[in-house]
Amino acid sequence: MPAANGIGAVRSIAKAYSCLATGGRELGLNQRTLTALSAPPIPPALGTKDRVMFVEAAYSLGYLKPFPSFNFGSSHRAFGTPGSGGSFAFADPDAQLGFAYAMNKMGFDIWEDPRQHDLRLAVYRCLGRL
Fold first, then answer.
1. Each residue of 6-41: pLDDT tens digit?
2. How many CA atoms does the CB half-sphere of 92 hold within 13 Å?
3. Which residues have a Cβ under 8 Å from the Cβ of 14 and sit 6 or more positions away?
């Protein structure tokens, strides 16, 4: 399970997503890659139901994109990755924001862990972007 063992310090994950949200120069990414990451997802021919998680989802280049049942970021250009137990990290190119959340105690929510959700909303309130 390649995606199941990603481990990192939350501060470092937020920094990586911040680099993605602000142009990707530190990571050596070109504009073509950043444009593809920020583009709206192309719906799969067999539907938008994730066959592993059994929920509706939208992906682009392996990253989760905002969709009606899990809206994050300030526009469709955001992209990120949820993690086990309620963690979540994403880049918001419009707000030039990298966000990462991991908890000390695992939860049961797939998309909207209430702790992460409330923290994410507080960040956007501080930015004046709600």
1. 778 899 999 999 999 999 889 898 889 989 999 988
2. 21
3. 89, 98, 99, 100
Residue 56, strand partner residues: 49
Closest Cα partner for 29 from 101, 94, 93?
Answer: 93
Tell me the whole-structure pTM to 2 decimals: 0.86
Q: Which residue is listed with tokens 């995606």?
A: 3
**The amino acid at 46:** L
Judge residue 90's burial from the number of C-beta atoms within 10 Å of its C-beta, 0-12 exposed, 13-18 middle, 19 or more buried. Answer: buried
| Cβ count within 10 A of residue 82 | 22
Structure tokens at 104: 């000390």
